[in-house]
C-alpha cells in the first residue's frame, strides 16, 4: 500500500498561533468532559496542532455522518462543471422513470438547487421511515412523499435530499458517487482509506456513511480553503466553492449559535466569516478563511454548540497576524497533545480460575436504544485478558454462530480487536470497525468493562456482578446522550450446555 500523503507540520508559533490558546482549548475540553476522539488545527497550509485521545489513534477512520453531504455537494459541483447538469434542472426531468403515477404538483417544481439547500418543500425527510425497511426503494419513496410546500420556500433538513443528489449523479455519470470522486478528488488528495455506505439499490448514501481519517478530512477542508486548488491543480471550481459555502437559503433568525446563520450547498454558514461541514455527534470540518485556518474535530457528544463555543473562545483569538518566537508554551502544548488519553482503571486482581470464566449466561432484558440481549460470556485468557461476548436477541436458541460482540479486553490496558462484530448486527453500522476494550476486576469480584469503538461514536460502559449462577449486567449509559443506567439479569447454563 502506498504511503498516505501527509500534510506539512509546523510549530504553532511559526504560523502565528499562540500555543496558550491551544492549551486553553484542551483545558475547556477536559473541564466540560467533551468526548473528543481527534483534533487538528491547520494554518497557512500546515498542521499546527494535532492530538488523538488514546486509544483513538491517527490511523483511525471516523464515521463522519452528515459531513458526507459536503462531499456529495462537491461531486455535484464537479458534474456541473463537466456540463452534466445544472442546479436549475428539475428533479422530475432527471428521474422520470422513478416518479409515481400521479406526482405531487410541487414535486414537479423541485430542482437540484432545492435538494442542495434542503429546500425540497417536504415537511420531513421521507427516508426516516423507510431506511429501516430492508430492500425499500429509497428514491421511489422520496419521490412518492407529499411535498407540502413550494420547493425553495423554506429550509427543512433532509438527508433524503442528499441521497437524491447521489441517485441523480449515479444516473448521469454511470458511477457511484464514491467512485466518481476517486480520480477527481480522493486520489489527488491522497485519500485511500475510505468507505461509504450504500442503499439497498447500490447507490452511495450521499447524506451519511462516509468514513475518513482526521487528516484526510483536514485535506478536504484545506482544499476548500484554497478555493479548489491543490498542488497547483484545479480540482473544484472556485465558483462552486463560493456557491456551496455561502448562504443560499435562510434557516433561522441569524441570532446566537451557529445553526441559524444560513445554509449553502450542503455546508453550514458559521459566525466569524467561517463555514463548516457538520456531522452528528460533533464531527466538524471548520474552514476559517479570514484566519487562513482549518479545524477538524471528531467526537461523541450531543453538546455540539458548546464545543464550537470552545473553538471561538480559545482557538480563534490565538491566531495572530505575525509569527511568534518559539517558547515553553509551545513545548507544553505539544506535550499535552501527545499525552491525550482516556485512561483505564487499574486492572485489580487477575481473573485466573474464575467460576464465571467460559460460562454462558442467558439474559432477558434490553439496554439503551432498545438493544435486546440474549446471552453473555466472559472467558479469562492465559495472557490475563478477558474475552467478552454478547449475543443479541433473535439469534438461534442454541446461540450457534457469531456473537454480536466478541473482543478481548486488556487487564487495565486498552486492547484492540479489529473485527469485534463478526456476524453483523442491527444495532451497529455494517462496517463498525475496530474496538478497544479494558477490564478491571473489583474487590467484590465484579468486572468493570469499557469498550470504545474506533470508527463510531459509541462507548459501552458495563459492570458485571456474579452471584453464584446469577449475572447482573449493568449498562451505565452515556449521560452525554441522556442515557440512564440499566441492569439486566440472567442465569448461567449448566456446564454441559455451554455453546
Q: What do these coordinates show?
A:
There is one protein chain. The protein has 2 domains: 13-338, 3-Layer(aba) Sandwich (Beta-lactamase); 360-497, Lipocalin (Beta Barrel). Strand 13 and strand 14 (386-392) form a beta hairpin. Helix 1 (19-31) packs antiparallel against helix 11 and helix 2 (67-81) packs parallel to helix 7. The strands form 4 sheets. Strands 12-13-14-15-17-18-19-20-21 form a 9-stranded mixed beta barrel. A 6-stranded antiparallel sheet has the order 2-1-11-10-9-8, with helices on both faces. A 3-stranded antiparallel sheet has the order 3-5-4. The chain has 499 residues and is α+β, with helices and mostly antiparallel strands. The chain has helices spanning 19-31, 67-81, 91-94, 112-116, 127-130, 138-144, 159-173, 177-189, 214-225, 238-244, 304-315, 328-338; strands at 36-43, 46-52, 61-63, 195-196, 210-213, 229-230, 233-234, 268-269, 275-279, 283-288, 293-299, 360-367, 371-380, 386-392, 405-411, 415-417, 435-441, 447-453, 459-467, 470-475, 486-492. The protein has 12 helices and 21 strands. The radius of gyration is 25 Å and the shape is globular.
